[in-house]
Write a structure and sequence with these properties.
membrane, mainly alpha, transmembrane
Length: 109
């Protein structure tokens, strides 16, 4: 439903495009974590494996978050209270952590 007078949303593909963007983001986070782990494991050590695992878990969570948002826009109720931007904050923090890990590897080797 549209926020304007309870009218249904106009037809279009905006919700589908947004859902695809969440899926691409999830896949990108997983791939970036695995690539960083692969390229830096020799320089940084096995600690980077934890970062790769965290990236994989975060990627799965981002995919589920995107699916929940897609379903909510189609009228299905979301379980639990709203997240209030925590998804975006966690995603941004993880991407920054990946970048810092790669920078540390470049500086060490």
């Amino acid at each position: 439903m549209s926020p304007v007078a309870g009218r249904p949303e106009p037809p279009g593909l905006a919700n589908e495009r947004t859902a695809l963007a969440w899926q691409r983001t999830a896949l990108s986070v997983v791939v970036a974590a695995l690539v960083v782990a692969r390229l830096t494991i020799g320089r940084v050590g096995l600690g980077v494996v934890l970062l790769a695992a965290a990236g994989a878990v975060l990627g799965g969570w981002v995919a589920l978050e995107g699916l929940a948002r897609y379903r909510a826009r189609h009228g299905e109720p979301r379980p639990g209270p709203g997240r209030g931007g925590r998804a975006t904050l966690l995603l941004t923090g993880t991407v920054v952590l990946l970048a810092l890990t790669e920078l540390a590897a470049l500086l060490l080797g």
